[in-house]
């Protein structure tokens, strides 16, 4: 029975697939796929080396502190960081007093609610508080940044390229020298959006946050070019997304060392056991 | 059951003797995976993967139970509770990465185990029942993995749940009510998340039960082997312990090295970035893709792009996707030639390697965006997939002239077998027990 019906079922699926294939092939041959502005002008993130890229690499705490400063002075005006608490900053080299001061001076406050009176209020942030929510009145919803480098293809490289990659749309050419607005006059960025070739559909609601060199004054004397600030804040956001990265790799080497040793022993044990059989 | 020369359990320690007379659990273990189970002496490393799959399941159960202690199955907090595990729970990041990558390792191992079965025709009599139970285990593991991926309640969790449960809506007449009944609502929400959590916790234990049946069924005829000929004499076998415990121990070490490399150095390599965005019913991701281990079947699902007579394309895709696995249930009867091992089946072997390439191509297309040329490639590849199992294998089984088999397992290992001279009548007698 199986050998009778089996081939019939197989042929049924094969014919149905051939029908789909034939139709698809006909469409592919007769209809031209229109070129899109996204396809021709979307750029992949620039390659940038971060200290934590390799299997041995760890976070550079000075860079994370510079990145935190950029977050604090620029990004935090619109973007929250709700999975991170102030005391987590101890891991990037701030001492207890500094963490307390950062929490206390943070401009947006922790929300309170008194169940007896129903009153809502505010209080100063404590080190154990997560970074408070940010209320944004403008267009769009600025995403929480805690996980942003893990939530985007390209990770910190993408975030960095996006931040440093805003461009003037007028006269913008891609690598083949094709001018965007000449090729696609309809692709003009609508009002309220901003042109950035690293963004998937080329236009995003966020205006360029890092506009001029020296926008942030680094306390360690590093010159704060737009690229430098973008790189630093991307590294900081890689840390907020994966705060256990250093410990993870460190543990990994210990585990791998043990496993390699145990596996070599297991190999010789196997050879020993089998020596009288072969 | 075992071969007559199987060693008998003889407890020396008075406590073990006492136990053996009342509850012979040590005897059971001894006969199952100890010196009391004679195994063909010529098994290669392809025979490691059953044990590895069992190990992977245990890893998943152990890490999963601890994760469940910290996870909250509620649509409002599920995503944040996973981040809580990653940040605040001691070694929580290791548990979660271990569990997520453990699923991938489980599937790598299972796929190798299944393709080992294809190549050596391990499904042929008298081992059909082992194979059928194996397919049941595979279906259970797929269901468990799918529901587990929904639990972090990220964008891919949500939209994956929506797409997969949406498949049921393709069934004529009862489809839509069935989908709503499965989800407990019109779209995935708290009800769906809660039941997926409940079932994700339950199914691994059901799987464990079926694995016990799978191993039980294995112990009736005993393990197959690379020559595909049955065990005839004692010299064809070695006791499971210490020979295969030692060999599996080395295999396990290699498995753990690969697993640890993933967990500690590339924990998000096999995941999708969109699942770090909280579920948002109002925003559809550009490309909804399942986890990599579903890609071949996802490619088959999406290969049907045009209605076939009265059958809508979506229903065809769903039928084909489920048939792609269900066809394995009929394999023992579709491929019923007398010779098992692919080593002695030159024609079958060519088609086997073609199938391996075909499934890899399907996997690649399943992970790619639903655009040309991937759709057309997956249509050709799906066509071959069904023709391979349902048309080519039966034809190959009837026209193929297998190469000569060695007289015995012993002869295949040592180049000679003394019993071949002494007892030539054995060559036509299958092993009895």
What topology does this entry show?
The complex is a heterodimer of chains A (278) and B (433).
Chain A: H1 2-30, H2 37-41, H3 61-73, H4 96-105, E1 110-113, E2 120-123, H5 155-164, H6 180-183, E3 194-195, E4 203-204, H7 226-241, H8 245-274
Chain B: H1 14-22, H2 25-33, E1 38-40, H3 49-70, H4 78-87, H5 92-119, H6 128-150, H7 155-166, H8 175-183, H9 190-219, E2 237-239, H10 240-265, H11 295-303, H12 313-326, H13 331-334, H14 346-367, H15 374-399, H16 409-414, H17 418-422
Antiparallel strand pairs in B: 1-2
Helix pairs in contact in B: 3-5, 3-9, 3-10, 4-5, 5-6, 5-10, 6-7, 6-9, 11-12, 11-14, 11-15, 14-15
Keywords:
heterodimer; A: 278 residues; mainly alpha; Cytochrome Bc1 Complex, Chain D, domain 2; two-stranded antiparallel sheet; 42% helix; B: 433 residues; Cytochrome Bc1 Complex, Chain C; Helix Hairpins; 17 helices; 2 strands; 61% helix; globular
How is this structure best described in words?
The complex is a heterodimer of chains A (278) and B (433). Chain A is mainly alpha-helical and 278 residues long. Chain A has 8 helices and 4 strands, in the order ααααββααββαα. In chain A, the strands form 2 sheets. Chain A has a two-stranded antiparallel sheet with strand order 1-2. A two-stranded antiparallel ribbon of chain A has the order 3-4. In chain A, a hairpin with a 7-residue loop joins strand 3 (194-195) and strand 4 (203-204). The model of chain A has no long low-confidence stretch (mean pLDDT 93). By secondary structure, chain B is an all-alpha fold. Chain B folds into 3 domains: 6-32, no CATH class; 37-230 and 238-282, Cytochrome Bc1 Complex, Chain C, CATH 1.20.810; 289-400, Helix Hairpins (Orthogonal Bundle), CATH 1.10.287. A two-stranded antiparallel sheet of chain B has the order 1-2. In chain B, helix 11 (295-303) crosses helix 14 (346-367). Chains A and B meet through helix 1 and helix 8 of A and helix 4, helix 5, helix 10, helix 12 and helix 15 of B.
């Amino acid at each position: 029975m199986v050998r009778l019906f089996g081939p019939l079922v197989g042929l049924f699926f094969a014919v149905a697939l051939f029908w789909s294939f034939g139709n698809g092939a006909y469409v592919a041959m007769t209809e031209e796929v229109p070129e899109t502005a996204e396809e021709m002008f979307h750029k992949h993130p620039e390659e940038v080396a971060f200290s934590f890229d390799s299997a041995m690499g760890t976070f550079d705490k000075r860079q994370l502190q510079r990145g935190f400063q950029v977050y604090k002075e620029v990004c935090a005006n619109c973007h929250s960081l709700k999975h991170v608490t102030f005391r987590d900053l101890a891991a990037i080299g701030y001492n207890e007093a500094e963490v307390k001061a950062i929490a206390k001076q943070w401009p947006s406050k922790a929300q309170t609610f008194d169940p007896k009176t129903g009153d809502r209020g505010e209080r100063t942030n404590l080190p154990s508080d997560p970074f408070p929510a940010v209320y944004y009145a403008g267009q769009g919803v600025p995403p929480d940044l805690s996980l942003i480098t893990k939530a985007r293809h390209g990770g910190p490289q993408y975030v960095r390229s996006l931040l440093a990659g805003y461009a003037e749309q007028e006269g913008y050419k891609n690598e083949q020298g094709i001018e965007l607005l000449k090729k696609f006059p309809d692709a003009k960025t609508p009002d309220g959006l901003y042109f950035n070739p690293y963004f998937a559909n080329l236009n995003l609601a966020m205006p360029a946050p890092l506009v001029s060199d020296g926008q942030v004054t680094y306390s360690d004397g590093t010159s704060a070019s737009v690229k430098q600030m973008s790189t630093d804040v991307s590294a900081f956001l890689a840390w907020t997304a994966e705060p256990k990265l250093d410990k993870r790799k460190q543990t990994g080497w210990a585990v791998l060392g043990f496993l390699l040793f145990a596996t070599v022993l297991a190999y010789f044990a196997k050879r020993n056991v089998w020596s009288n059989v072969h | 059951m075992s071969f007559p020369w199987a060693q008998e359990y003889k407890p020396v320690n008075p406590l073990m003797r006492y136990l053996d007379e009342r509850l012979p659990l040590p005897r059971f273990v001894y006969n199952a995976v100890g010196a009391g189970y004679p195994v063909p002496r010529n098994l290669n490393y392809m025979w490691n993967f059953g044990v590895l799959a069992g190990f992977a399941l245990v890893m998943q159960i152990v890490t999963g139970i601890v994760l469940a202690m910290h996870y909250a199955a509620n649509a409002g907090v599920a995503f944040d509770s996973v981040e809580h595990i990653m940040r605040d729970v001691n070694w929580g990041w290791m548990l979660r990465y271990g569990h997520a990558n453990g699923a991938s390792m489980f599937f790598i191992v299972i796929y190798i185990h299944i393709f080992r079965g294809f190549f050596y025709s391990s499904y042929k009599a008298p081992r059909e029942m082992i194979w059928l139970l194996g397919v049941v285990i595979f279906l259970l593991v797929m269901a468990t993995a799918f529901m587990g991926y929904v639990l972090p309640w990220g964008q891919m969790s949500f939209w994956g749940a929506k797409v997969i449960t949406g498949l049921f809506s393709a069934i004529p007449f009862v489809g839509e009510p069935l989908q709503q009944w499965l989800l407990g609502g019109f779209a995935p929400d708290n009800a769906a998340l809660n039941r997926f959590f409940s079932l994700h916790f339950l199914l691994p234990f059901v799987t464990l039960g079926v694995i016990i049946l799978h191993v039980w069924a294995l112990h009736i005829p005993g393990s197959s082997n690379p020559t595909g000929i049955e065990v005839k004499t004692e010299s064809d076998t070695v006791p499971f312990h210490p020979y295969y415990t030692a060999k599996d121990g080395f295999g396990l070490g290699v498995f753990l090295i690969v697993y640890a490399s993933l967990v500690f150095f590339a924990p998000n390599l096999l995941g999708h970035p969109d699942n770090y965005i909280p579920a948002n019913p109002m925003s559809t991701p550009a490309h909804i893709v399942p986890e990599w281990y579903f890609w071949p079947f996802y490619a088959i699902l999406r290969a049907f792009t045009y209605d076939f007579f009265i059958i809508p394309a979506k229903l065809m895709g769903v039928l084909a996707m489920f048939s792609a696995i269900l066809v394995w249930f009929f394999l023992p009867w579709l491929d019923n030639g007398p010779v098992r091992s692919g080593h002695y089946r030159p024609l079958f072997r060519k088609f086997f390697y073609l199938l391996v390439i075909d499934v890899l191509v399907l996997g690649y297309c399943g992970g790619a965006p639903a655009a040309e040329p991937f759709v057309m490639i997956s249509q050709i590849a799906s066509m071959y997939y069904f023709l391979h199992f349902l048309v080519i294998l039966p034809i190959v089984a009837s026209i193929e002239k297998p190469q000569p088999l060695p007289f015995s397992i012993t002869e295949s290992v040592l180049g000679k077998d003394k019993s071949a001279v002494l007892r030539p009548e054995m060559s036509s007698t299958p092993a009895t027990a």
